[in-house]
């Protein structure tokens, strides 16, 4: 069957095959599927002879790390050969967050058991498989990498293939898998979470079919969902793909696995790095991603502690730490990660803290970032969780875009602060006050009422905004987060859509 690509994409593809670069980096080379299953694929062509590598992700919809990594990897410039990426193979399964792809009727299909597809396709899932297979057959990649995730660590159980590299039964594929294992395992600190080698992709999988039918050197990369933040798993996929592409000489030295953003990707949008890792807790990360995701002029990306230590903030305008444990976040970052964040803000980056992220920004803790001249008023912090009243100051109304009056806001043991009187830091400005309080667990009464709920300051050339309560988890106040991003990155709030 023929690929349903439009004339300009077909022309572009022909040019690509002829070795010419004609596409803007963010423009799809073509599309697979139709209607709700329609999904783009992308091509990077160096114009120089070299291997052709095809990366596929999102065949299973409940495995988000592969698609996240593929979306980043497809922007890596290449210097040799060509790189094709299908970042979200089954958009319907990804939207439903299910392993199986919907098949039109009541059936669902495991898309990774139908290759090579039979002659007469049935529902949308088989149709998609046929088009994906047609792309592989037309392109004839030298290498095929299929990015997946497992539920548990293969090194700990035979019930899952998580944290493994599954290589086709070909010497070059096996050798590449060994190198990838070394590269990724160099970053794995707990030995029982190490990646292991597995032989031969399962029958019916895209990788197995590509190897058996077309002779492609095929690998399946599997990260582990259990107990590991999405940002870490995404990084492990980037590490693995980076290992292969650099071994093939396809990417320049300046492209490291810490490259999360490319210019074309941000398209002038404000890029916000949202910390996703140890020390985090609750719904903060998904909530801020949702809110920032609603803004056409903003882009939010999850980052791990390793990413931050590796210099991943380059290209970002803001970094955000949400709820959980400030000391836990600090521990995960380590001295080096904390120093990187201080340098980022010092150079003009914006820091936004929510609850734990605000503890992390405060002065007075040995583990703190010391970004703002505020300290906690009591060592007893377990004040409890409650809805409290907050009131914006005139500066807060301008920054966060809401009017007078008291607002209900979720509070969950966020910092109660006063001036730290650190001579090296400018005084903070209060954007909102707590007007009521909660004081459970024998925490001191009276210190929360009329203390700062939202406070902001400067650190070097950058701005720092701290929320003690949780507007991102309070209905009606979510926009405070994107307004804080706009204000902290010094964009006029008028550039945001009306509330
Ligand atoms: Zn899978």
Q: What key phrases describe this protein's structure?
A:
single chain, alpha/beta, Aminopeptidase, Rossmann fold, eight-stranded mixed sheet, 14 helices, 29% helix, disordered C terminus, binds zinc ion
CATH class of the largest domain: Alpha Beta
Question: Any guess at the CATH architecture of the largest domain?
Answer: 3-Layer(aba) Sandwich
Proportion of beta-strand residues: 15-25%
CATH topology of the largest domain: Aminopeptidase
The CATH superfamily title of the largest domain: Zn peptidases
Estimate the mean pLDDT confidence: 92
Number of domains: 2
Largest sheet properties: 9 strands, mixed
Which cofactor or ligand species appear?
zinc ion
Reading side by side through the largest sheet, how are the strands ordered?
A: 12-11-13-14-21-20-19-16-17
Helix content percent band: 25-40%
* SS elements, strand count: 21
Number of helices: 14
Alpha-carbon distance between the two ends = 47 Å
Structural class: alpha/beta
Give a written overview of the molecule.
Helix 2 (65-73) crosses helix 7 (230-247) and helix 5 crosses helix 7 (230-247). This protein has 499 residues and is α/β, with parallel strands linked by helices. A hairpin with a 5-residue loop joins strand 5 and strand 6 (108-109). The protein is 29% helix and 22% strand. The protein has helices spanning 7-17, 65-73, 91-96, 124-139, 171-185, 206-214, 230-247, 263-266, 284-293, 305-309, 326-346, 356-361, 394-400, 479-488; strands at residues 30-32, 39-45, 52-57, 82-86, 101-102, 108-109, 143-150, 164-167, 196-199, 217-224, 270-275, 298-303, 318-321, 350-354, 374-376, 385-392, 406-412, 417-419, 429-434, 452-459, 462-467. The protein folds into two domains: 7-247, Aminopeptidase (3-Layer(aba) Sandwich); 263-495, Class I glutamine amidotransferase (GATase) domain (Rossmann fold). The protein has 14 helices and 21 strands. The two termini are 47 Å apart. Mean pLDDT is 92; it is low at 1-24 and 492-499. Strands 12-11-13-14-21-20-19-16-17 form a nine-stranded mixed sheet, sandwiched between helices. It is elongated. Bound molecules: zinc ion. The site of zinc ion has 4 residues, from loops. Residues 60, 63, 112, 148 line the site of zinc ion.
